[in-house]
Amino acid sequence: MPVMRLDKIIAGAGLSTRSEAKKLIRAGRVTVEGRTVEDPAAHCDSGADVRLDGRQVRWQEYLYLMMNKPAGYLSVTEDPRAPTVLELLPPELRRRNLSPAGRLDKDSEGLLILTSDGDFCHRVISPKSGVEKEYYIEVLDPFPPGAEELFRAGAVLEDGEVCLPARLEPAADRFSARVFLREGKYHQVKRMAVAAGTKVKYLKRLSVGGVALDENLGPGQYRELTAAELQKICEESDNLHK
Question: What is the number of other CB atoms lying within 10 angstroms of the CB of residue 237?
Fold first, then answer.
């Protein structure tokens, strides 16, 4: 565990800003291994038993959250025109410098990963990493014959942009389908459906990198990714280059 300033540990846990942490420490509200410390610049092991008003402070270098994004929220950190997914989090998590690792449209739902780890965020988003995303969609008109091949060959969108090969698995009635792709162009799934001759009316992301949305999470709820889930996503990215 790294050795850090005490005020940085408090702020890094999302319990306050750095300046607020200094005030809390000077007020005698912080203990380290049971001993009150009033110097914000005091250094201690980040794994030490640090407590604020008796509550244990859990410092993490990076945070990784799985959220079940509801419709009506933007997958951005801030926007003056509409609510964002960060507004679904409590204040201590909003202070953790979290960003969505990939986006879902405002009217779309499902798995959204939020993280403070910029390298991991890039790994999830970048087509070069090849992290697969799975979506469930419902369409206004049935997928026509040949839609699967169009996705498999790499759909050409209305503006001429070419997509990487993807997989379309329509249901028997062809009014719904699962889509698997390894990139994330702007409104890509919806635009690919248009290229195939139909239009998406409902979209939900089911998985990222083989990690499925936790069925116990209701709309707007979240939890931390487990170590195994985090490793699974990273390994999928690594395997593409082996």
Answer: 18
